[in-house]
Structure formats: C-alpha cells, structure tokens
Amino acid sequence: MSFSPQVEAWVARARAVRVIDELQRRGIYSRRMASSGAPCPVCGGVDRFSVNARKNLFFCRKGGVGGDAIALAQYLDGSDFYAAVETVTGEARPDDLRPETAEDRRQREAEWKRRSEQIRLQQEREYRDQVDYREKERAACHDIWRRGYNWAGSPVQAYLEKRGLYAPPHAKLRYLVEHPYWDNDLKRRVHWGPAMAGAMVGPDGRFAGVHQTWLDLSTPKGKLILPHPKTGEIYDAKKTRGSWKGATVPLVTCAAPERWFLGEGIETVLAVYTALHRMGSPLLEGAEFHSACNLLNIGGKSAGRVAHPTLRIVRKDGRDGGPKKVPGATPADVDDDLPLIAIPPSVRELVLLGDGDSDPFSTDLAMRRGGARFARAYRQLTVRLAMARADMDFNDMLGLAEVAA
C-alpha cells in the first residue's frame, strides 16, 4: 500500500500496538495465549489460539489466520484494513490532503523511535521468559511420557482396535493409567482417567512434547466425552503439550526410509497404514508413517487469502459481509515462527493425507500449501496429496473399507 505521510504514521502507530495490549483492551487476553495456547475468540477450541510476544504476532492454527494487531482486529471484527487501524489506534483516518510539516515529521519519527525501543526491550524480556517456560514445559512433558506404560495389551490397544486400527509395536505411543485433564480457565482438574500418549519428536530429533488422547471405551469411538461443568460444552478429548511446531509423532519407522506418509491425526495416519497392511501393499516397503498433530503443522502460513465458496461473514448488525476469506494454497515466503517438519534425506516420496471431516475447501488448500512448502524445501521429493471423502476422515473410510479404493 502507498500512503500519505499522515496515513503512513497512523498505520505505523497501529502496527506498533502490541497484540497482547489489543487483546487486553478487549478483555479477552489469557496468559495461556502466550504459553500453551488458549481457545480462539472467534472459532473456539481448546488451545488453537496463541500469541508470540517476541514477534508481536497472533495465530489461530485452526483457520491458519495470524498477524499483527491490525490483522487481529480484522480477524476479530471481520472488518477491512482501514477500519481495523481505526479500531487499534482509536483514531479516525487522517486527512490525506493536509501536507505534513517538518514539526509533524519530527514528532512522528521521535514517537516511532520511542515506541520501537519500548517494544524491543519488552520483547527481549518476554523472549527470555518464553525460553525458560518452553524448557520447563518440555521437562514436564517428558515426566508425563516416562509415567506411561507399554501400550500393547492396554486400553490404548483396545481403543485402536475399537477404531479398527493396527499399529506396530514400536509406535511412539504409551498408556497413561490415571491422567489428569486440566482446565486452565477453571484452574482445576476436571477429569482423571486413562489416556493415550504420543511422543512428539522435533525437527532436531529431540523429544519436544506429548500428544494426549483421553479414552472412554464405552463411547462409540472410544474417546472421552467430557462436558464442561458450567457450560456443558464438550471438551476436546485431545490435547498437545510442549512444542508441536515442526514435530511429529512417529508411528511407523524404518532404517533409511524412502517414502513418508504424513497426516494430521494419529488415527488418520494409522487408518491408511492399516488399510495398506491388510492389503499387503508394496507401498509399505521402506515407508514411514507420522502424525503432524494438527493441520497448521503441515500447511504452515499462507501468502494470501482467498474467498470461501460457501462461508459468509455476518456483520454485527446482521448484514452480509461477503465471503469469508481463508488462507490460500500459496505458502508464505518466510515462516520463521513455524519450522518445517524435517524429512530424512533418504526419502524420495511424501504422501500428505488430508481429512474431509472438517471444511474440505480449507483443508484442501492447507494440504496444497503444505505440499508446496515441502517441495520448495526438499527438491528431491515427489509430493502427493491423498484426500479423504468429504465429511469423512480416513478412519471413517476405513470402517467402510474405502481407504484403499
């Protein structure tokens, strides 16, 4: 965008606003946003909304939406760029026609320098705090993992069998006998019970965190159905703890793999493995299967947004705000905040597994974006995309014997 000096200064003031400050001004900030993640103010969930205080950015991994305080206001309000700048600064758009005086410029540059230094010092402090927090979290996650038992013959195996899934003995899974489910907002445990733990391994090969699935074998799919004690809303039976960025849960591994299957959830990936295993497929030769834990970890951030074909924005006054914009298929040029999952140099083929049980349009774009990310970083790779049927995931399709069709 090309602005007059006045508008440029106005936009700069908005960009200098800390995301945390804008969230606090709205009364919706939670410390979890800057640590383990919190429910998204727009689309809910449990821990999908996060804030990087050092970079002054927010991100919702469900929709792949993120950015600075201006982007935050656009996301929360469904507003355009200029309306968002007005919201963040509390100032109307300046008159473009009034020329900037030398004194105006001096004051603008001095204020920008002061705010920049203030933000730099604050970000340095918050970065040090985040580093300390991440290491403490990694240690806590490792304690959870160490408390787990061999999953073979445990309720974890019963859960997988209930879902029609097979996993090899070396899958990075464990059984947690009595695992607490913690509600950070209520500041208390709301459940104790059996859970499946998956070890998340980071791009550096180190233990990075733990993926947790609480179990209840009496339910149709074997997962815990836990209502919130106050609202009655059902908690997500799955949580990650630690750093999922660039990490995977290794489910099937081998020496010098030549083919990788990578999907979002553990059950999705095991459904494809189970189908190929039943067929005795040659695709299993030299193949590894990994769960990325969430879609954002595959797709990354997008370079732009596209109009959704069916979803619409409903403004506060009830009027139609036009098509909802969702992250497109082109990956961002630079994505320092979200490291790419590390693919071994021996791998020549990468198969990305996309579920259809969420929004198929957005999921397809995210998977294509992920394919472009991996193809750009790993020139030796042939990247393929396998999508489940609309309104189903691969585990659903396995139940219909359609995975390998």
Automatic annotation (TrEMBL):
One of its GO terms (molecular function) is DNA binding. Signal peptide: none annotated. SUPFAM superfamilies: Zinc beta-ribbon. Keywords: ATP-binding, Helicase, Hydrolase, Nucleotide-binding. It holds the Pfam family DUF7146. CDD domains: UDM1_RNF168_RNF169-like. This is Zinc-binding domain of primase-helicase.
